[in-house]
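Please check our next protein.
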Amino acid sequence: LENRTFSTTLNTADAVVSALPFSSWEEAIPISTADHFLWMQQAVNDGNEEAVQKLYALGGADSVDDLESARTVLRSAYYKLQNNVAIDSSSGFTGIGNKDYTFGGHFDGGGHRVSLTVDTTVSDVPENLYIGLFGCMSPLTDGVVEVRNLSVESSFDIKLPKDYTATVYIGGLAGQAVQLTLEKVDVLLKKMTLTKAESDADL
């Protein structure tokens, strides 16, 4: 066998780096209404195409063709609250992130307050529920999930079916959070009522 040495030169001058959108505080998606929070829930939890497109437009990015990739981007994106916001569950909002599609991004409250009121009746859901401003949180692409500079006031009044046997995770900020980094976050839990109906007729 004969030993041979090979050499090559890699020219990266013309290489194109395609950075993900919303991947820094400078590129954070501005959040200013209850609808924006609902879009976050719909995009992260359900992969709702309309919500995904709306958030991309809100952040000043082009529309997307690959929905699942865009959903992943939004799950780990940077967001910044622009003003105080009141959210009511009558819109369908229960929390951003669930067990299968957690929120693993970065949220800066900008020193503002979110007032969250969840008053809802759950019917025939055979799986765990995650309820809060964020339903379920865990690190994703960059290994960090964080909330900073935010005040949250939360109130919960939830009625479950008589035979409901799964677990309900409820929190003023998050129903469940893994390795969550907090900085200057205040949470006031004003009310938490969780009851089971005595019969299906009570729902």
Summary: The beta strands are 29-31, 78-81, 85-88, 106-121, 129-131, 134-137, 145-160, 168-170, 174-177, 180-196.
